[in-house]
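Weekly puzzle thread! Below is a chain. First person to post its structure in token form gets bragging rights.
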Amino acid sequence: MRLKKYYEINEDQYIDYIEEWEHTGVRISPAQSARDNETYTELQVRWNEYESDTMKNRNMVPATLYFLCDEEGRILGAADFRHRLNGYLEKFGGNIGYGIRPSERMKGYGTKMLMLLLEEIKISNLDRVLITCFSDNVGSARIIEACSGELENIVNDNGRDKNRYWVRL
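Winning reply:
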């Protein structure tokens, strides 16, 4: 398995991945990996822009989108690394959002992807990263805890409890 940046995947890999999400009707996670009626070329432009400082103009932080791929190049999941936190992300969203395609859940891929991402972002000069999940998302909480996440607190996010974990790099 390998973690690839958005520009290292091809259109066929992405279409296979995203169509599964779209057919299930499950909310795509991370949301940045959704295609939102854009062509693959438009997505690549958006993801490239998303990684740049131009996001400040939209009150967003720069972020990099990664995909977890198996040996054949099939995308198993995606992770969004936000390079820094703004007010909302510090309280509710965190530095990292991730998701595994519906057919590949409960196979250990979430933990593997998060471990690989944490290794990748150690060069970011951050001492620690914040990762959040809804309190009722037991699978995600286990993934974060397996990657040395330490629960700081639980906050209310629009009527739902959300766990806030810090992971030291």
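Puzzle host: Confirmed. Bonus trivia for everyone else. Residues 54 and 107 are 37 Å apart (CA to CA).
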